[in-house]
C-alpha cells in the first residue's frame, strides 16, 4: 500500500511511519520540519515538506495513495499556527485532497475529550475536525485518544524537566483527576492496523491505557523513576491558566499550555461522545510502570535558557 502521514515527524507520527515502512508499505511523510527519524531515510519513505494548510501540496502528495493518516496537530497556538488553521482547515484540506485522489481511507487522531460547547479552542477545533471526517463520504477511523506517552512526548518530557528544575510541583485544581496513559507504541500499532487492514471502518474509537490513576500518583511515579521526591501542592485552575498564559509567551514549549490545563482540570479517563472500544487485539496493553516510564524519559536535565522564546529567536 501507499499511505500518506501528516505530522509524520511528530511524536506519534514517527512511530506510525516506522511501523508502516518496516512492513514494506510506501509512506509519504508530510511535515513542516526535518525529522531525525531513521525510518524517514528508508527507501520506502518519500519526504514532502509543507503544511496541511496548503491544499495544492496535499492534492499532489496524496496522488496514488490508498490511505492517509492525519496526525498533524498542535496544543499551543503560535504565529501562523492556530487551532482553526491546523485542526479545522487542515482537516478540510485533507478530506478534499483524499476525495479528489480517490483515497480509500482517512484516519484522524483526535483527543479523548474533544467536544463542542466548551471554552477551549483546542477541544472545539478537534471536535470540528472529527465532524468534517465523519460527515465526508470517505471511509474513516477516528481515534479519540487520552494522554500518549513515550520518548519525546509532552508528558514524561515536561514532567521530568519540571522535577529536575523546581523543588515543588503544582497539581491542577483541588480534586485529583484521573488519567489513563497510553504508550505511544500501543497507539501507533492501532493506527497502523486501521490503515492497512480495513479495520474499524467508519468508527470513532476511544484509546485509553490499561491503568487509571490520579494525576498526583502519575507525578509521584515519574518522580520516583527520576530519583526525585515530588513535593506537590494543589493550586486553583485559574492559577494554572494564568501561569500557562505567561509561560506560553516566555517559552518555546511551556511545561503546560492552557489547552493542557483544561485537559488536566477535567480528567482524561472518559471519552466524550459516541465511541466504541478498540477490539482486544488492538487495545493498549502497556502498563504505566517504572519500566515503561524509564523507557520514555528524556536525558536527565531541567529547562535551559534555550527553552526561552527570546533565546530561541536570538539563535
Provide a quick synopsis of the model.
This protein is of the alpha/beta class. It has a domain at 2-146 and 182-208 and 270-284: NAD(P)-binding Rossmann-like Domain (Rossmann fold), CATH 3.40.50.720.
Q: Widest sheet: strand order?
A: 3-2-1-4-5-6-11-14
Radius of gyration: 19 Å
Q: Number of DSSP helices?
A: 11
What does the overall shape look like?
globular
Main beta sheet: strand number and arrangement?
8 strands, parallel
Which range does the strand content fall in? 15-25%
Helix share, percent:
25-40%
Structural class: alpha/beta
CATH topology of the domain at 2-146 and 182-208 and 270-284: Rossmann fold
State the order of secondary-structure elements, H for helix, E for strand: EHEEHEHEHEEHEEEHEEHEHHEHH
Known CATH architecture of the domain at 2-146 and 182-208 and 270-284? 3-Layer(aba) Sandwich
Report the count of strand segments: 14
CATH superfamily of the domain at 2-146 and 182-208 and 270-284: NAD(P)-binding Rossmann-like Domain
Q: Alpha-carbon distance between the termini?
A: 42 Å
Amino acid at each position: 500500500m501507499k499511505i500518506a502521514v501528516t505530522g509524520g515527524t511528530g511524536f506519534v507520527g514517527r512511530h506510525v511511519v516506522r511501523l508502516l515502512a518496516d512492513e514494506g508499505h510506501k509512506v509519504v511523510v508530510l511535515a513542516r520540519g526535518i525529522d531525525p527519524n531513521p525510518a524517514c531515510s528508508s527507501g520506502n519513505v518519500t519526504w514532502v515538506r509543507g503544511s496541511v494548510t496548503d491544499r495544492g501540496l496535499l492534492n499532489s502528495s496524496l496522488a496514488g495513495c490508498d490511505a492517509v493518516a492525519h496526525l498533524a496537530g498542535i496544543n499551543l497556538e503560535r504565529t501562523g499556527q492556530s487551532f482553526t488553521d491546523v485542526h479545522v482547515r487542515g482537516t478540510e484540506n485533507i478530506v478534499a485532497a483524499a476525495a479528489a485522489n480517490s483515497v480509500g481511507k482517512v484516519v484522524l487522531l483526535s483527543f479523548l475529550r474533544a467536544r463542542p460547547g466548551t471554552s477551549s479552542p483546542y477541544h472545539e477545533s478537534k471536535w470540528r475536525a472529527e465532524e468534517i471526517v465523519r460527515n465526508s463520504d470517505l471511509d474513516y477511523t477516528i481515534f479519540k485518544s487520552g494522554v500518549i506517552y513515550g520518548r519525546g512526548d509532552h508528558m514524561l518530557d515536561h514532567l521530568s524537566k519540571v522535577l529536575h528544575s523546581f523543588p515543588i510541583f503544582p497539581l491542577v485544581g483541588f480534586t485529583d483527576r484521573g488519567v489513563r496513559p497510553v504508550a505511544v507504541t500501543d497507539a501507533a500499532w492501532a493506527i497502523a492496523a486501521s490503515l492497512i487492514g480495513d479495520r474499524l471502518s467508519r468508527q470513532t474509537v476511544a484509546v485509553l491505557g490499561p491503568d487509571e490513576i490520579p494525576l498526583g500518583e502519575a507525578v509521584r511515579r515519574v518522580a520516583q523513576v527520576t530519583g526525585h521526591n515530588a513535593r506537590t501542592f494543589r493550586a486553583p485552575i485559574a492559577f494554572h491558566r494564568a501561569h500557562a498564559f505567561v509561560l506560553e509567551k516566555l517559552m518555546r514549549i511551556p511545561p503546560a499550555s492552557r489547552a493542557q490545563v483544561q485537559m488536566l482540570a477535567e480528567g482524561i479517563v472518559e471519552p466524550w461522545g459516541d465511541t466504541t472500544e478498540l477490539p482486544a487485539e488492538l487495545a493498549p496493553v502497556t502498563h504505566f510502570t517504572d519500566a515503561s516510564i524509564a523507557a520514555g524519559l528524556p536525558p536527565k536535565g531541567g529547562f535551559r535558557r534555550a527553552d526561552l522564546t527570546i533565546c530561541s529567536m536570538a539563535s
